[in-house]
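Hey forum,

I'm writing up a methods section and want to include a predicted complex as supplementary material. The small molecule is zinc ion. I've pasted the protein sequence and the SMILES. Can someone with a working setup run it? I'll credit the forum in the acknowledgements.
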Amino acid sequence: MLKLYNTLSRKKEVFRPRIDKKVNLFVCGPTVYDFSHIGHARTYIVFDVMVKYLRQKGYNVFYLQNITDIDDKIINRAKERKISPQKLARDFEKEYLEDMKSLKIDSVSKYARATEHIKEIISQVERLLKKGFAYRLEDGIYYDISKFKNYGKLSKRTVLQAEDAVSRIDESKEKRNKGDFCLWKLSKLGEPSWPSPWGRGRPGWHIEDTAITEKYFGSQYDIHGGARDLIFPHHEAEIAQMEAISSRGPLVKYWLHSGFLTVKGRKMAKSLGNFITIKDFLKENPPRLLRLLVVKTHYRSPLDYNEKLLSQTKKELERIDEFIDKCKNRSVRKSSGRWKSCHGLIVRFEEKFEKAIEDDFNTPKAIAAIFELVNQGNSLISRNKLSPTEAKEILNVLKKVDKVFNFIFWEKSKEKIPKEVLKLVRERESYRKSGQWGKADKIRKKIKELGYWIKDTKDGPKIKKV
Ligand SMILES: [Zn+2]
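Reply by user p_vandermeer:
Happy to help. C-alpha cells for the complex are below, copy them as they are.
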C-alpha cells in the first residue's frame, strides 16, 4: 500500500487516485532563462522516479509539466543579451530538454508552454474578476487574497503573514493586500504582449499553472509536485485561483515537495562560485552518477552535494558494476543439478525494496536493499554457491528495479564513436559475412588508424577507443 506525505495535511496518507488507477500529475517546470542546475536536476529526477514506479505498478499516469517561457527574468536576460525574449526562451528550453534527455528523465507525457495557453489564462482571469476574487489596477489585474477564505491552507500562513512575502513580480503600491499577486500584467512598451479584454499584456506566474492544468485535467487532479520553495507563494496561489474559479476543492489531492540541494553546505549561488549546471556536472561525470546521488537521499530531506558524497557514490557504482559483471559471467554457465539454488535472496530483496518505496518513496532504504543484495550475492559467488539460474534471476530483478531508477544498466553512449567509424564497422561486417577477409582486415586497420579497435564477440563487434 503506497503511502505519500501530503504537504496539505502534513501527514503520510494512503495513495488512492481520484479515479481508479488513473493518475493526473503536474510538476512545475523551468523558467527558461538560463541553464538548469543540479538542484533542478534533483527535483526532476525525484519525480521521474516516482512516475516510473507508479507506471510499473500499473497506474496510468499522465505527467504534465509547464514551461515558463514568459517572465520578468526572461525579459531582463534577453535585454542584456540583445535578443528577443522568445529566442532566449526557446534556446534555453532546448538546453533544458537536452539536459533531461541526458539524465534519462523521459517520463513526462506533455510539456506545456505558458505562451501557448494565453487563451486559457485570459479565461481564468475573466472568471476570477466576475466572481469578485480579482480587481483591476492601473498596471494589471490582481488577485484579492482576503476574498479566499482558505488562503494559506497549504503553507499554513495567514493573509497577514502573506503580506511579508515578496513576490516574484513587481507589484503596484495600490494593492488591496500586500500579499495580492498579479494575474495579468499590462505591458510596458517594447515588452512581449498579447491582446486581452484589459489591453495588451502578459500572464502572471501563478496563473499559467492552473490554466494549463484545468485544460488537461479539469479543476481537480491527483498529484502536484515541485521543489519545496514553491509552496509559498506559488502553490498557495494556485489553490486560491483554481478553487475560487471552480468553487470546488481540493484542487490537488496530494501535494508532494522535494527538499533543497545545497553545495558544500551552502545554497547554490553564482556569486559564491558553487553554482553547478547539469552540463558542468556531465562534463566530468556520467549521468547515472547524478541519478544515484539523488535517490540515495530521501526526496524530502535536504541533500548536500560535496566531494565526499561524489566519491562515495562513484565507488558504489563501481561495486554494482563489478557485481553485474560477475552475475553475467555466472549466468551463462551451464546449470546442473549440483546447485542448491534459491537462497531466498531475491524474494527477501523484493519485499524490502517494495516496502521501502511504498513508504513515501524511501529510496535510500531501497538503495540499501540493493547493496545488501550485492553483498550477499558477492559472498555466495566467492564461495561458489550462486547458481547460474539465480545469477540470471538477480540480473532480471535488478533490470526491473532499474526501469524505475535508471542508474544500474546504462548503455555506454554510442554517440561518442564517430559516425565515420561506425560506417566502417558496418562495411567490415558485410565483408566478413561474405567471407572477404582481406578487405575486412584492411578496414580494421583503417579503424585502428582512427583510434578505435574492434573485438569480435558472438553478439557482434564491440568497438573501443584505443
Ligand atoms: Zn508552477
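Some notes you might quote in the supplement: The CA atoms of residues 7 and 65 lie 20 Å apart. Residues 28, 209, 234 surround zinc ion (CB under 6 Å).
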